[in-house]
Q: What sequence folds into this?
C-alpha cells in the first residue's frame, strides 16, 4: 500500500495516485505475459506483487474519495470501513499467492526449467528504472513518515527488479537455471512480510484497536493536564479507516456553566486533533463521579445485560 500520499492535499494526489495505478497495472500485466512466455517464476512472482500494489493504490484512492463523501441515514459513519475490508481482502489474497509461489518454486528446484533470460532482463530492467524514478520523485516531496515508507517500498521493489536482471544475466552466462526459483522464494518472502503488515493493520482497525502511533497513556496525560479536568474514564480510541481516528470518553469536571464546558471541549478537541491526529471526538462531561453500576462504561453495560442479572 502507499498510504503516504493521503497526507498530501489537493488534486495532485488524486492525479499521482491515478498515474501510479495505471503504470503499476500496465507493468504487472507486462510481467505476467512475459513471465508466462519466458517461463520465469521470478517474473510471475513479481507480477503478483505488483497486482497487490495496484490494489493497495486503488484502496488509497477510494479512501481519499470516501473522506469527501458524506455519511448517510443508514451509514452514519460513512463508508470508511469499506477501504479496510478491501485492504484485508488484498492482504489475504497476497498471502495465498505467496503459498502458490513457494509451491511452484520448490517444484522447479526439483525439476529445473530453463527460463528465457533475455525477456527476464528486459522486463525487469524496465521495472528497475520505473521504481527507481518513482522512489526518487517521492523522496523530494516531504519528510512525512508515510511517504518515507512508500519510498522504502519502491526502493525495495527496485532492488527486486535489479535481482531479476542479475538472475537473467547469470542464466545467460552460466546456464544455472535454479537461480530463478531461488529468487522467487526471496520475492515470496517479501510479499509475505508486506501482506502480513496489511492484514495486521486492518485486523487492528476491525478489532477497534488503538491506531498505530497513538499512545493512550500520553493521550490521558494530555487530557488530564487541563486544570478543569478532575478525572477521565470510559476512554475509547479507534480508527474508522487507516487515516481517520476517533475517540470517546467521559470527563469529570467542576460544576461549570454549559458555555464554559463548550470552551473546554473546543480546547481539548483542538489539542487531540493537533497532537494525536484524532479528528472525531465525542466527550461527555460529568459533574460527579459516575456510579459504577450505571451504564457509563462498556463493562457496566455488559454486567447489566449478562444472563445472571436478567
Ligand atoms: Zn511493491
Ligand atoms: Zn462516566
A:
Amino acid at each position: 500500500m502507499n498510504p503516504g500520499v493521503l497526507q498530501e492535499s489537493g488534486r495532485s494526489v488524486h492525479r499521482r495516485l491515478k498515474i501510479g495505478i495505471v503504470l503499476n497495472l500496465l507493468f504487472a500485466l507486462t510481467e505476467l505475459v512475459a513471465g508466462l512466455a519466458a517461463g520465469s517464476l521470478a517474473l510471475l512472482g513479481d507480477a503478483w506483487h505488483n497486482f497487490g500494489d495496484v490494489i493497495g493504490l486503488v484502496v488509497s484512492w477510494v479512501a481519499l474519495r470516501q473522506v469527501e463523501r458524506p455519511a448517510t441515514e443508514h451509514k452514519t459513519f460513512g463508508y470508511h470501513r469499506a477501504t479496510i475490508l478491501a485492504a484485508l481482502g488484498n492482504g489475504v489474497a497476497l498471502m495465498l499467492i505467496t503459498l502458490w509461489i513457494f509451491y511452484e518454486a520448490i517444484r522447479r528446484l526439483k525439476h529445473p526449467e530453463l527460463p528465457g533470460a533475455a525477456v527476464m532482463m528486459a522486463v525487469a530492467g524496465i521495472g528497475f528504472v520505473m521504481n527507481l524514478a518513482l522512489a526518487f520523485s517521492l523522496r523530494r516531496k516531504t519528510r512525512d513518515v508515510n511517504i518515507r515508507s512508500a519510498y522504502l517500498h519502491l526502493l525495495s521493489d527496485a532492488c527486486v527488479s535489479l535481482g531479476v536482471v542479475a538472475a537473467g544475466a547469470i542464466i545467460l552466462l552460466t546456464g544455472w537455471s535454479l537461480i530463478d526459483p531461488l529468487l522467487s522464494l526471496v520475492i515470496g518472502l517479501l510479499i509475505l512480510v508486506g501482506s502480513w503488515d496489511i492484514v495486521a493493520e486492518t485486523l487492528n482497525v476491525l478489532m477497534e484497536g488503538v491506531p498505530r502511533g497513538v499512545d493512550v497513556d500520553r493521550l490521558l496525560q494530555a487530557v488530564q493536564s487541563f486544570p478543569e479536568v478532575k478525572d477521565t474514564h470510559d476512554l475509547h480510541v479507534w480508527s474508522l479507516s487507516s487515516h481517520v481516528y476517533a475517540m470517546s470518553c467521559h470527563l469529570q469536571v467542576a460544576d461549570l456553566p454549559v458555555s464554559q464546558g463548550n470552551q473546554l471541549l473546543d480546547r481539548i478537541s483542538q489539542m487531540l486533533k493537533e497532537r494525536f491526529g484524532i479528528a472525531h471526538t465525542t466527550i461527555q462531561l460529568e459533574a460527579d463521579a459516575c456510579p459504577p453500576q450505571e451504564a457509563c462504561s462498556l463493562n457496566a453495560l455488559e454486567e447489566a445485560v449478562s444472563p445472571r442479572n436478567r
Remarks:
- Residues 1-8 have pLDDT under 50 and may be disordered.
- The first helix runs from residue 11 to 38.
